[in-house]
Amino acid sequence: MALWSAWLVAVLALVAAAYAGWLMVRNRPVDNPLFYLASVLEVALVAQLVGGCIALAQTSRAVEGITFVGYLLTCVVIPPVAIVWGVAEKSRWGTAVVLVAMLTIAVLVLRLVQLWSGHV
To answer: What is the three-class DSSP state of 64?
Structure first.
């Protein structure tokens, strides 16, 4: 797994979380820029899923494969669910759901880096 891409995804998730937090503080619902940012993040997460699975298949490292792929799949599922939930809830709490989801993705990606580095 390319660590630079994992860090890029984590930073992108933190940028989306910061924007969602700014919307939440302003009592705004999920808007188009947040949707587009989450879409870009989703594309990056799908690329990370494919690249991570390929890297896992080709590595001789002691990586817990099921856990690693589970984290990759979980990261891919979170943004669409969060955006749908955030759009359905028109109050600031819908934006808060997106904020928490983006922070969760950043933490999961950091955990992926730990797993790839051999930390249990």
So the answer is: coil
Write down the pTM of the prediction.
Answer: 0.91
Distance CA(58)–CA(99), nearest Å, equals 35
What angle do the packed helices 32-58 and 92-117 form, to 10 degrees?
20
Q: How far from chain centre, in Å, is Cα 55?
A: 19
Name the DSSP class of 118. T
Could you tell me if 5 and 12 are in contact, meaning their C-beta atoms sit under 8 angstroms apart?
Answer: no
Distance CA 111, CA 39 (A): 22
Distance of CA 102 to the CA centre of its chain: 6
83 close to 19: Cβ distance less than 8 angstroms: no
Over the stretch 40-68, which tens digit does the pLDDT of each residue have? Answer: 999 999 999 999 999 989 988 788 889 98
Does residue 2 contact residue 88 with C-beta atoms inside 8 Å? no
Question: CB–CB of 9/48 below 8 Å?
Answer: yes
Q: How far is CA 23 from CA 8, 37, 68, in A?
A: 23, 13, 32
